[in-house]
Amino acid sequence: MSDSLVIIPTYNEKENIGKMIRTVMLLPHPFHLLIIDDNSEDGTAQIVKDLQVDFQIVFL
């Protein structure tokens, strides 16, 4: 269990979000990651959803 939370707000971050999630999730300290997308039209949300299985990400 972790007592830390990383929050990443996004809007049209298709080019960055996959790398950002992988980089953050590979840090040695355990934490929760919360991605908040503001209705991106570029497919950001789908990339996050695809990575949910690998990293157990909650998508709102």
Range of helix content: 25-40%
Low-pLDDT stretches are none
Largest sheet: 3 strands, parallel
Whole-number mean pLDDT? 88
Walk across the major sheet and give the strand order. 1-2-3
Number of domains: 1
Strand count: 3
Q: What is the string of SSEs from the N terminus onward?
A: EHEHE
Strand content: 15-25%
Number of helices: 2
Ends apart, CA distance between termini = 21 Å
Shape field: elongated
- The SS-based structural class is alpha/beta
Radius of gyration: 11 Å
Tell me about this structure.
The protein is α/β, with parallel strands linked by helices. Helices cover about 35% and strands about 25% of the residues. It has one domain. It is built from two helices and three strands, in the order βαβαβ. The protein has a three-stranded parallel beta sheet with strand order 1-2-3, with helices on one face. Helix 1 links the parallel strand 1 and strand 2.
Question: TL;DR of this structure?
Answer:
The chain is of the alpha/beta class and 60 residues long. It is 35% helix and 23% strand. The chain has 2 helices and 3 strands; from the N terminus they run E-H-E-H-E.
What order do the helices and strands come in, and which of them pair?
Layout: E1 5-10, H1 17-25, E2 32-37, H2 44-55, E3 58-59
Parallel strand pairs: 1-2, 2-3
Helix pairs in contact: 1-2
